[in-house]
Design goal:
The complex is a heterodimer of chains A (113) and B (116). Chain A has 113 residues and is mainly β. Chain A has no helices and 12 strands. Chain A starts with a strand and ends with a strand. Chain B is 0% helix and 53% strand. The model of chain B has no long low-confidence stretch (mean pLDDT 90). The chains are: A mainly beta (113), B mainly beta (116).
């Protein structure tokens, strides 16, 4: 079946450190891939997305590239800030679905000043 | 931007009672709404997909008689947990989708349900 696997957290970094959160997926066909972020006390927000192989999604300094050959969509940021502290979810939608998102378990990021 | 609200944000109820959770899209019409359940330190699990004016589609393993979903208008969907038990305690999150199936989903802030 379709699934998303992302690295276990929590991840604790110092401000300005480099961030990578790994995400791999299993899906039939060619899914669309997403990263969502959930700040404390708030709902999930779309951070970035990619709809086909080799697409790069980017937003707020975060990037992720759709790698079909490795079935991965790793999230990266060159210099994290304290305000980036949140839970990050990798997700996919398969073609032919009603738009049902399949989520990874989430990775909690804490950035220390 | 598109805003989705949920009400209540948290609720505590006695075992055996029913609880209704509302999900509203405040500034857009949602053709489809989704209900998710999130356990501590676990992912969001899709419970059901709700289309305005039609019956909800439930995921395998979700009891439709226990989790009643009504999508009465293009801006409102409700989830009623009937005869709630402690094992129903969880964080329930809705999302609303504008337009077709590849359009972005906008998420509500979630409702924390605690059943005593």
């Amino acid at each position: 079946g379709n699934s998303v696997t992302q690295m276990e957290g929590p991840v604790t970094l110092s401000e300005e450190a480099f961030l990578t959160i790994n995400c791999t997926y299993t899906a039939t066909g060619y899914p669309s891939l997403f990263w969502y972020v959930q700040y404390p006390g708030e709902g999930l927000q779309l951070l970035l997305k990619a709809t086909k192989a080799d697409d790069k999604g980017s937003n707020k300094g975060f990037e992720a590239t759709y790698r079909k050959e490795t079935t991965s969509f790793h999230l990266e940021k060159g210099s994290v800030q304290v305000s980036d502290s949140a839970v990050y979810f990798c997700a996919l939608i398969t073609r032919g679905s009603q738009g049902n998102l399949i989520f990874g378990k989430g990775t909690k990021l804490s950035v220390k000043p | 931007g598109a805003v989705v609200s949920q009400h209540p944000s948290w609720v505590i109820c006695k075992s055996g009672t029913s609880v209704k959770i509302e999900c509203r899209s405040l500034d857009f019409q949602a053709t489809t709404m989704f209900w998710y359940r999130q356990f501590p330190k676990q992912s969001l699990m899709l419970m059901a997909t709700s289309n305005e004016g039609s019956k909800a589609t439930y995921e395998q393993g979700v009891e439709k008689d226990k989790f009643l979903i009504n999508h009465a208008s293009l801006t409102l969907s409700t989830l009623t947990v009937t005869s709630a038990h402690p094992e129903d305690s969880s964080f329930y999150i809705c999302s609303a989708q504008r337009g077709g199936s590849y359009n972005e989903q906008f998420f509500g802030p979630g409702t924390r349900l605690t059943v005593l």
